[in-house]
Fold Diguanylate cyclase/phosphodiesterase.
Amino acid sequence: KAKEQGKNRYVLYDRDMDKAFSERMTIEKLLHTAMDNNEFEVYYQPQFDLQSQKITGLEALLRWKSSELGNVSPIKFIKVAEDTHLIIPLGEWVLNQACAFVKELHEKGLQGLTVSVNISTIQILQSGFTRKIIDIINSHKLNPECLELEITETILIESFTTVFRKLNKLKKMGIRIALDDFGKGYSSLNYLKQLPISTLKIDKSFIDSVSIDEEGRTITRHIITLGKSLGMTIIAEGVEFNEQLEYLKKYHCDRIQGYLFSKPLPGEDVKKLLIV
Ligand code: C2E
Ligand code: MG
Ligand code: MG
Ligand code: MG
């Protein structure tokens, strides 16, 4: 009996593996033509500043509307784009879209609005990365202080020294660096000390726990204090409930980003939201 069950389990597992593998292959195949087919779009999620009660920034989030697969989550395709290095042209495309979009909003009177773009390890480790960023900023005549690059701790674990050098160069140019998903991985407080980080984004898992347990609340409150005392701007990610908002306000979190305020939106909808 046990043997039989074991065998069934094995078959099931095998089938799941198969399915995951073939899905991955399909994504990989379709990704290669997706750019030429104009299947990508950049959405923007507003970041709401609690003090000024205004939208002060936008996070660029990539969307893929595949003609064959429909909407594919970035959680599924970013990894494939990284493994195939397609993330290099794709990431550059996102940067150009985001810079052009925020520049257009500046010209419509929203000076100072920032745009944050997620950057993969593959991109940052590519030689000439800093030059590329500088070229993009110049070609859009964008104030460098209005561009923020979001990196995660995985980038740091892999090649600290190289990343450290590149980030310092970018920071000197006025570009902002955000540490994304803070607290989610193997966060090292050492990174906070050594890196030129302007913004700390508290991972959604902590924000979730604010409405669940005292430990979550305590950690969240202390991350805010720690980041702020190091001169960083603190953003709470994935704020969904009023209760979380009230807690974050009470402990002087700077900005919130989440469905409570707004989902990521197509550029046209963001314009409607911002330009009255
Ligand atoms: P991330 O950078 O941490 O982005 C935040 C994610 O949380 C986004 O998912 C956003 O839609 C989602 N989110 C925001 N507020 C809420 C909320 O209140 N509740 C819930 N449940 N979710 C919320 P999305 O757009 O699916 O992106 C997932 C991840 O994919 C991003 O996480 C980022 O790591 C990656 N990604 C997205 N676009 C790009 C890109 O252009 N380049 C790179 N390298 N990665 C990207
Ligand atoms: Mg991000
Ligand atoms: Mg995040
Ligand atoms: Mg995340």
